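Lay summary

Proteins are chains of building blocks that fold into shapes. Our project writes down both the chain and a compact code for its shape. Here are two examples, one after the other.
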Amino acid sequence: MLAYKAPLTDMKFLINDVFDFQSHYQSLRGGEEASSEMVDAILEHCAKFCESELSPLNQSGDEQGCHFENRQVTTPDGWKGAYDQYIEGGWQGLSFPTEFGGQGLPLSLGVFKSEMIGTANWSWGMYPGLSQGAMNTILMHGNDKQKDCFMQPMVEGRWAGTMCLTEPQCGTDLGQVKTRAELNSDGSYKITGTKIFISSGEHDMTENIIHIVLARLPGAPAGTNGISLFIVPKVNINDSGELLERNTVYCDSIEKKMGIHGSSTCVMNFEEAKGFLIGEQNKGLHCMFTFMNTARIGTSIQGIGSCELAYQGSVPYAKDRLSMRSLTGTKQPDSVADSLIVHPDVRRMLLTQKAFAEGGRAMLYFACQIADKMMDCHAKGDTQAYDEYDDELGFLTPILKAFLTEAGSESANLGMQVYGGHGFIKEWGMEQIVRDARISTLYEGTTGVQALDLLGRKVLLGKLKTFKAFVAQIKQFIKEHKNKKEMKPFIKVLKKQVRQWQWNTIKIAYKANKNRDMVGSASVDYLMYSGYIVMAYFWAKMADAAHTKIKAEKGLTPFYASKIQTAEFYYERILPRTLSLQATMQKSPESLMQMPEEGFTNS
């Protein structure tokens, strides 16, 4: 069975040496409580919980799956017990305000926790993960009564949350939402409609589930401008937050899926269920973006987790499995053959997994610091600074979500490849990573949707503002490090890549002005192209931090040496993928669009 080991050394390298989170925390209101000792204790205790409780349930949960009967869902054996330990430890409220029972620590600490949980057992982690998105939405957009009523039991983990967007006739195109909301005499609403693909829509973990639901009021404008957002509890509550009778929202079935079997994916029917408007009428999509962006960052964690878990499974197998002799001569003369790890192609696969896992983690932790600053500005009422950080994070979010999940899926498949035929067999655990990882490129906006968001909305409609701001950060790094002897190989390549990134972006913008199909035809290639360059920037930062530590410690330690060597591999073997992407993304849409619909047939 594949066992997860939290990569604490790598996590602490990023926290302490690359991004200096201690100085960052001192700049936040209340952040002084996140001392280095506290951060280490949180990481180590969470690692222990993930390794001893969640990881052993990952494979058994996949095999058993969820059980559905009489509109009730039972999670796999041991899952509720693990959840009870989770809430007893206060993990759910780690980064939520103390006034609602949380610990009031920076948001980034919650992300570090979520990364370990998601890598150890992604399906299990979806239950508290969806709840965090619901809590963020209520915290940001709910009124005082709603916060007082819903936040504390959710922060404590006694109540869970969901995101109810998709309907049978619409997924990404939420303008087609048909779920209805009608005003009751007491100011509440009757919610009627069907939602599908609702993760954690029904389960046995908590005493109540709080659904965050998109619906349409009578006479609302057509399209997305006529959508409102509602809080719909599974069990009704009174003004004091006490549980009453069951609300008329039910799970009518759960999906039979390719992967994430331990996560209940539900068809939910709302039968004049009692709900409460959150935010303004017809402004529901704006409010829901808080939830959606939380989920997108969360999904990027799945991408990193898929890379990490596949790598952790691949390395010991590659070291233990004997197959053929090294091309440069026998390496293990006392064995019948040499280990897989001596072969260059196996090393290519291992290093690709390692580069994506550690590079993706660096990208995520950088985004965490931006999110911390956003929340700090929100608490201080500094709307201008909040909007600036929101724009910066908004530019990175589609890259994090789409690029890292594509990397996760690739790494999972490489893990199966390292195992050869054994990778196709369930008992080794590698094929489960492939199945679980595949959904990450689909939900919370497919790779294509994220690519359109990046190129169409964030770059072109944004007049390249956030793009230029991020490029300026990289250029500043280049300027500060260009004369460091050990950094020159990285800086030379990074400088060229950034110049090409700017030029290619301007060329696409020019072509898109003449033919709007250019945006759609270039978008996915552009997102992946951007992702490779962004990751290259963070690998340069990690290489610099590693060189600094080596100088300070006056010795080449294996850990820091491996950082530099992985950075070199990334620059030589992965970053050149940008060459083909910049060629394809500049091509005319004609070869995609010229064929009539009748041509798409095999008859």
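And here is the second example, written the same way.
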Amino acid sequence: MAKQVPPKKKLSKVAKRAAANAPTREQILKFVAENPRRNSKRDISKAFNIKGADKIHLKAILRDLVQEGKIECRGKRLSQAGQLPPVIAIDVLTRDRNGGLLGKPADWDEAKNGKPPVIEVSTRAKGKEKVAGLGNRVLAKVFRIGSSDRYTAKVIKILPKQETQMLGVVRIGEGGIRLESAVRRQGEMEIPADLLGDAQDGDLVTVETIGGPKFGLKRAKVTGVIGSYKTEKAASIIAIHANEIPHIFPESVIHESEAIKPASQGKREDWRDIPLITIDPADAKDHDDAIQAEPDPDVTGGHIVRVAIADVSAYIQSGSAMDTEALLRGNSVYFPDRVVPMLPERISNNLCSLREGEDRPALAVKMHFDEEGRKTKHTFHRVLMRNHANLAYPRYQAAIDGKPDAKTKPLMKDVLEPLYEAYKCMTRGRNTRQPLELDLPERKIILKEDGTVDRVLVPDRLDAHKLVEECMIQANVCAAETLERKKQPLIYRVHESPLLDKLEKLREFLTSLEMTLAKPGNLRAMHFNQILSKVRGTENEELVSQVVLRSQSQAVYTSENQGHFGLQLSRYAHFTSPIRRYADLIVHRALVGSLGLGEGGITPHEEKTLEDIAAGICITERRAMQAERETIDRLIAGFLSEQIGATFHGRINGVTKSGLFVTLDDTGADGFIPISLLGDEYFIFDDAIHAVIGESSGQQYQMGQRVEVKLVEAAPVAGALRFEMISEGVEGTGLPRSRNTNKRTGHRGRQTPGTFRGKGRRKRH
């Protein structure tokens, strides 16, 4: 019987008209390619004069283009598939035949993303524009050339980077003078005796490579001595220098900070009698946020919550020496043994720190919540306040749990209990919003007096932490809402929904566990929460949590609002930490200026350069995170270096073609197991289920799997650990079949199931 072909569905007159008025697919692709900064659905509608019901047909075309992989959707913005962000850091590497500069994205991962795109860096400059040279790392605006993989770049500023210099520790022994590199992937180097300079054994030095023999160790020349690696702060010193973090304030900045006088009340509202308190970590050196709450007399079950933030804009004037340095640093950097502050100590730890019992200028928001925790209104105020009590998180929690001490007992009825009742009210609103609930443990390193690791612990996640966090989130929302209402340009904190390729990988992984994920157009944080709740308490909890976390986009600063997916908020801006984040200082200035709250408002120049400022502080934020992570790695590697040969229990937290990453239970230390040390068979990598599978045995090692490992190597200077697997693999279901099947192995060939080191197969011995 012949197969019947269903008749084509007739289009209505409205649909025919919409199709006739809509741009073609080719026109849309061309517009997206040529307008990297003006490419939202609204922009496309305006460009092609699409109105009313005709927008439905346009959305259908855009949806098809996204599903086909022709364009990518990042929040409200569209871009060509694989297109670079509008502003990135670029390493200038070489020249073309005509002498032009060529570069590549500084953070490009070739193993993950393939060959980097070619970027032609402009050497033309007008006025104060920067001109780049070979070896420079620059922050630049990039523009795609048609639909090719080539870009042009306009330099915004030259970032401090010395490509030829490296960091390491001098080791002098019978075999000669060696440099132990501070970079994991950089091997040992030889230092000729006549190029050692004043460096001694154990000194942390900078070197530059020099010519040498074709075979054997690379040779290096010492260019600077930083200090002895034996000092208690060596790990953080390496991170500071390796990541080129500014850590010494120029004299002009110090002089400027010393000359500043404490702010007076002036036209500020007097809030000194309002019982605001600070709740911070026990070891906090500065306090920039205070909170207070009380029942709302006009709303049954409602609450009034006040959040007062240190008024840094009263002291740091735009364009001043301190402001210029703060923008360069972007944020404070926190190490286990020290802090590299964004602002001089007189500002951060004194004039702007909300010290107990002392008067301080503040920018405050008064928020009203109804019985269900919905914010109904808010107002901003420039005030003079007094911190009535500085409490550590455990101290406040103990008081709320019925164990007040001499300090907290007098505060219970009028201060601490009303705050907790307001928190419970706000929690009802949070539960309605259903933000992403990825509650992964954070470890804290406790050091001895000599700077070495004493122990590693996971602090309890208390209601006191959640209380302060929810107050800060609501205050940040108020800042964004107020500035939008005033049509004031600002810097948003944006967290886009996961990209389609990451969602597809997550969906494929969940399918292997017989779980499903909502379609991209309907996806909300609650859908991830539902998945996490299904595996809570099961053997797959850690595995699924890690995979969900890695599917999420990275939060960034931008001058364009794209919402915050994780918090499920349509607008969000950082307002609550201006002592340690430049983004918050900009938001303070924007509020002061737009609300007419006195001096210290945002300037026209800052408004014009918000995009560049946002791009710069995104880079400094990532730099700080990397430096903090590297320091912890070095400290723990040093802690474990005396336990070579010991066995540990841990969990696989990463699977690659090259091997496995394992996180130890006790310390949270991360180490690597090369795939060559797993066994005497081929291991096939499957990224869909995050596992490597023995080709002969079918035994698999999968992300999230609990294992026992032996420590075989520790490199404290580089912060690297190498393990050997002790645990046997587990029985796996094998690689999922697909239409794209590798005939030779019978396994998925979507990403050449391969293994191992290099491109070919190697036997395991």
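What can we say about the second shape? Residues 1-9, 734-765 have pLDDT under 50 and may be disordered.
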